[in-house]
Write a structure and sequence with these properties.
By secondary structure, this protein is α+β, with helices and mostly antiparallel strands. The chain is built from 14 helices and 37 strands.
């Protein structure tokens, strides 16, 4: 494939960056510039005749009270967080299984986030809750301001339905906290200078006792400043009570330690023994379930290939035993997608060419046995949404696909399943189909991708002709792009005559560690080549043309969009990058960026800087190049990917005379929106922009 002329480097050094001032997140000049760009974008897109109708349709989808309210079981109750038009910030509530089975369950209200935000004058966004096991009387509630990753933590009394006045309470920080017992928690948070890593995450784990100041909590573990983070948790499984701490040296490596005599009442003398390292490879994931140590491999170990799932007796492993029981080993077409424990079984989720397979694995005296759990349709996705492994073999299973809304099943292994909920359809699928194709990347790699659009058997493309197509991709951090139903995409794109495509490029986890590792560091360009190959294949198949092909991606997918802009602009008719990573020579100095050097490389390392400079979108923009129209979207309150990436790139494009629209939401964090109204507005902006540049709607 011939690359665009823009592949030639235009490397502006960091020191002479004329737009560095736009990295001042709340600076007056920067915010004034943002306000001007927002006004331009709103004027350009919201005045479109179809914008308000589209926004209203998308809000209707997001607020639909018929959608499934997914739950988490804790004891006799199923807990759920819910947003709709009457509760834009949402409510935390619970019900019983018998009630949940009904069409209109009776919910017990626990916390109204809208009311709390109004009472306290804060823009609270729900960030989750941890209910204490086994008595289920208290919870640790996490609240975010404007959707940022940093949270405030408050203890909540589930009987009184109120915050505990003298309970555990923490100010805003990137905090990790987990229950040990009613009066103790493990705490990893910002304690001031020297207590955060270079990536901005906690580097110490402390045991905090109720009624004491968090600053006086007992230090139990400390990571290095150059690590990504430290962590700790307590396993309260009856008969297997244990506490663990650990460190993440990089995004993809970790060390796990068992804390001896680490019960809540342990004193300093009882804790004299050193933590015991769980001696698995640093790049493996270690999970402890009852008597088992489960190890997921990223590289070969003990004669087993990368991508395998191994089981060991935990106590035997600590004593030096290293003979694994192999629960899963991949081949060229399959990969481990995850696993979920119940009390007596392990539910195994695997991919075969990105389609889901589900099995039940059961340990016994003669080893592990396996049986199918569910018959998942091809080109569909099944996800275990909840289990209660300390109590039962119950599981909740969600199944959907691009054209099939979710169905939620409840089952008990060995007993049977029941259909609990079915989500409503939000668009007409008549005449649409889902197909899977494979493009060939320049190095010969076959790259799968899904096409959702007009059924070629019903309306052959020879008759219909190429149409407007939206191609989505991510390609990083082991994340897999699996089939999923989206009422928003259906309403905004498919129902209006568009074709939607998802590319499973390298860098993701669709084929396990090898697929991810193939695009690390200097090999990141292979992910870019994969995506460009999919784009070219769509044109070769007659599905679309370059002028009618739009692309979209966010975060690491925003980097992918920037690379497409600078390396392959001739392949596309419009590009949308959301909360994007674009300055690859300064990303490690901005917010959480230092934690991603294991993915991309380190700009301060002479061995890495050349390849980063070669593809950094911000540094490879050029004058006189024919770029497709670009929409950049970010959030002032994104404390993960700095808004300066999008700001500076928009400013640079403007300076070079290129067409670019920019919109920055003042809240929303890395998600870009804190409620359904904001989300509907953002998505209406995106799709209005795409339709404007890719062709007339047909419906």
């Amino acid at each position: 494939m011939v690359r665009a002329a823009s592949h030639r480097q235009h490397n502006r050094g960091v020191t002479d960056d004329p737009f560095l001032w736009l990295e001042d997140i709340d600076g007056a000049d920067a915010l004034a510039w943002v306000a001007e760009r927002n006004a331009e974008t709103r004027a350009a897109l919201t005045a479109d005749p179809g914008f308000l109708a589209l926004q209203s349709e998308l809000r209707e989808v997001l607020d639909d009270t018929g959608r499934i309210s997914y739950t988490t079981r804790r004891g006799e109750f199923l807990y759920s967080f819910w947003r709709d038009a009457g509760h834009p910030k949402g409510i935390w509530r619970r019900t019983t299984l018998d009630q949940y089975r009904t069409d209109d369950p009776e919910w017990e209200l626990l916390l109204d986030v809208d009311a709390l935000a109004a009472d306290e004058g804060e823009s609270w966004v729900w960030a989750g809750a941890s209910v204490r096991y086994p008595d289920y009387r208290r919870a640790l509630v996490r609240l975010s301001r404007d959707g940022s990753d940093a949270v405030c933590v408050r203890e909540f009394d589930l009987a009184a339905k109120a915050f505990v006045a003298d309970g555990f309470r923490l100010p805003e920080a990137k905090t990790g906290i987990s229950w040990i017992d009613d009066d103790h928690v493990f705490l990893a948070t910002d304690f001031g200078p020297g207590t955060l890593t270079d990536s901005g995450y906690p580097r110490t784990v402390r045991r905090w006792r109720r009624g004491t100041a968090p600053e006086r909590a007992e230090l139990v573990f400390e990571a290095a400043a150059g690590d990504v983070s430290a962590f700790g948790w307590h396993d309260a499984t009856p008969g297997f009570e244990r506490s663990f701490v650990g460190r993440r040296p990089t995004f993809f490596t970790s060390e796990l330690f068992l804390l001896p005599n680490a019960g809540a009442g342990a004193g300093a003398g009882e804790r004299a023994a050193e933590p015991v390292k769980v001696d698995v490879p640093a790049d493996a994931d270690a999970d402890v379930w009852r008597q088992w140590l489960l190890v997921t491999l990223r590289t070969p170990w003990l004669g087993q290939p990368a991508g395998s799932l191994l089981a060991f007796d935990f106590e035997g492993f600590l004593a030096g035993e290293r003979e694994p029981q192999v629960l899963f080993a991949p081949d060229e077409r399959t990969a481990l997608a995850g696993f979920s424990p119940t009390r007596r079984h392990l539910i195994l989720n695997t991919f075969a060419d990105v389609s889901t397979r589900m099995e039940v694995l059961t340990p016994g005296p003669q080893g592990w046995t396996r049986a199918p759990l569910a018959d998942v349709p091809r080109l569909a996705c099944a996800t275990v949404t909840d289990t209660d492994p300390d109590v039962s073999d119950e599981y909740f299973l969600d199944v959907d696909s691009y054209l099939r809304p979710s169905t939620l099943y409840r089952g008990e292994i060995g007993v049977g399943t029941e259909t609990l909920k079915s989500a409503p359809a939000h668009f007409d699928t008549t005449g649409l189909s889902v197909r899977q194709h494979f493009a060939t990347s320049p190095d010969g790699t076959r790259v799968p991708y899904f096409v959702v659009g007009p059924d070629p058997d019903a309306t052959p493309h020879t008759e219909a002709g190429p149409g407007p197509t939206l191609l989505y991709g991510y390609g990083g951090f082991e994340l897999s792009m699996v089939p999923a139903y989206s009422g928003v995409t259906g309403r905004a794109w498919l129902a209006r005559g568009g074709t939607y495509v998802v590319a499973n490029i390298r860098g993701g986890g669709e084929y396990g560690p090898r697929w991810h590792q193939a695009a690390l560091g200097a090999d990141r360009v292979l992910a870019f080549e994969d995506f460009a190959a999919v784009a070219a294949d769509l044109t070769a198949r007659g599905i679309t043309t370059p002028g009618r092909l739009g692309i979209a991606g966010g975060s690491n997918g925003g980097l992918l969009m920037g690379a497409m802009l600078t390396r392959y602009p001739e392949l596309f008719g419009a590009i949308v990058a959301q909360v994007p990573l674009l300055d690859m020579l300064r990303f490690h100095r901005l917010l959480a960026g230092a934690s991603w050097t294991a993915e991309y490389g380190d700009p301060d390392n002479e061995a890495d800087r050349p390849h980063l400079a070669a593809y950094s979108p911000y540094h490879n923009l050029a004058a006189g190049q024919m770029y497709p129209p670009v929409l950049l979207m970010t959030s002032t309150r994104d404390d993960r990917v700095h808004p300066g990436h999008a700001r500076k790139t928009a400013a640079r494009l403007r300076e070079l005379g290129h067409a670019v629209l920019f919109h920055e939401h003042t809240g929303g964090g890395h998600a870009g929106a804190t409620d359904n109204e904001q989300s509907a507005f953002n998505r209406a902006l995106t799709h209005t922009f795409l339709w404007r540049h890719l062709g007339e709607q047909t419906a």
